[in-house]
Amino acid sequence: MTDTSRFLITTSDERSWDTEKPVLFLGEWCRLYNRESAWKSLDSEVCPEYGRNNNQQIKDFETIGVLYKKLVHELTQSLNSYHSVDHSERYWKILIGPWLYRFITILFNRWFTIKQAVEHFNINHTYLFDYSTDEIVPLDMMDFNYMHRTDEWNHVIYGMILSEIKDIECEKLESIKVSLKIKNENSKTQTQKFKKYIINNLEKLCSKLSKENDAFIISPYIPFKQHILLQLAFKQFPMVWHSHQSVVLSDKNISRKNIFLENKFHHGFVKFIREQIINQMPTAYVEGYNELQSHVDDLRWPKSPKVIFTANSFESDEIFKSWAASKVEKGVPYVVGQHGTYYGMNKYDTAEYLEIETADRFLTWGWEGSNKKYYPACALTCVGDKDGGYDPSGGLLLVELHVEHRDTPWDSSCL
Fold first, then answer.
1. Which of 324, 249, 373, 248 is CA-nearest to residue 87?
2. Cβ neighbours of residue 11 under 8 Å, at least 6 residues apart?
3. What percent of the chain has pLDDT over 90?
4. Over the Cα atoms of the chain, what is R_g?
5. Per-residue three-class SS string for the chain
6. Residue 183 clears pLDDT 70, i.e. is over it
7. Distance from C-alpha of 9 to C-alpha of 17, rounded to nearest angstrom
8. Whether the Cβ atoms of residue 251 and residue 290 lie closer than 8 Å to each other
């Protein structure tokens, strides 16, 4: 541990900095390139990235996988009891799995990043923003995806972890109350509202021509022309189904405290994540679940589709996930198409893991694997493009990975 006492800075939000003291930046994400003038002259150190060691990456990935399986099993029982339903574990994996796995992964990274900093540096002080406890709960997966990429959300999470790990002086800035929420449905432009109105009414009109056992294809990631041809191949009227995403309102008469996750014999990160799952589970799965089901019941989608196929809606489309999960329970085949370009190459890809786990068949972009669910297909976005648009006299486009906002157990720059 270093001797110099330092003020801890956890995000790039300069309102939480104390530039009059020696500081410790939790990571490079705190030091924005376009704000170099604000941090370059400070007496500062930067924490080393968490998870650089390959063996540590393997261990962390396996740890999270085991924890996820245990928690989704427990939550299946707990949520069934809470909502007075009797759904299968696979149903809940399809509905809450994307959020649960990512939530565990992100909090794992935040926890051990702080833990590493506390163990290697002499931290004596930090600032915390004030916030509304109600706002820490996302509406749904899409809301969560926005929130966890913001400085405000991460700042709040780091504050929670600091209070659990070590007694560092955390001074709450009462004068600064941050908002963790995104704009609601009413903030949409008139053009967006009109477009949604047209799409909904077209779907309502065309749905009269669809059959109850039509193959259901939504967000397939293939060109529009090929989307139409695919449905014609199924000998059905071509339907371009759209997401019915909407803001899910919470029922204030229902208490999420009735969701039970045993936590008496746990400690450290496991105890923390179990508490926060209850505290931060999206409204769509708790207070808003009944309303979500009402939306599903009102859908004009096929009642008994011969197959369900998507390459995009499996993550953030709560209405689709709930609808698809209920159909899967009745034996409808569920096919997922590869969404990203580096699937099959990254053995630590959490997105690939979840998509394959919940699907009956997984269409890859041509590669093969040991999993029986894999079916080598092609790059879905290029279906029907025979020459690939190759220009022998053209230039070369070099595509490189961007750095995600630490969506992995380790700091994302450690690839």
1. 324
2. 26, 29, 30, 151, 154, 155, 158
3. 58
4. 23
5. CCCCEEEEECCCCHHHCCCCCCEEECCHHHCCHHHHHHHCCCCEEECCCCCCCHHHHHHHHHHHHHHHHHHHHHHHHHHHHHHCCCCCHHHHHHHHHHHHHHHHHHHHHHHHHHHHHHHHCEEEEEEEEEECHHHHCCCCHHHHHHHCCCHHHHHHHHHHHHHHHCCCEEEEEEEEEECCCCCCHHHCCHHHHHHHHHHHHHHHHHHHHCCCCCCEEECCCCCHHHHHHHHHHCCCCCCCECCCCCCCCCCCCCCHHHCCCCCCCCCHHHHHHHHHHHHHCCHHHCCCHHHHHHHHHCCCCCCCCCCEEECCCCCCCHHHHHHHHHHHHCCCCEEEECCCCCCCCCCCCHHHHHHHHHCCEEEECCCCCCCCCEEECCCHHHCCCCCCCCCCCCCCCCCCCCCCCCCCCCCCCCC
6. no
7. 6
8. yes
Question: Which residues are within 8 A (CB) of 384 and not within 5 positions of it... i.e. 6 or more apart?
Answer: 222, 223, 225, 226, 229
Q: What is the mean pLDDT of residues 357-368?
A: 92
Nearest to 41 by CA among 28, 22, 26: 22
Q: What is the pLDDT of residue 113?
A: 95
Residue 414: pLDDT band by 50, 70, 90 thresholds? very low
> Token pair for residue 18?
């104390």
For residue 134, the one-letter residue type is: D
Segment 264-288 mean pLDDT: 93
Q: For residue 286, is pLDDT > 80?
A: yes
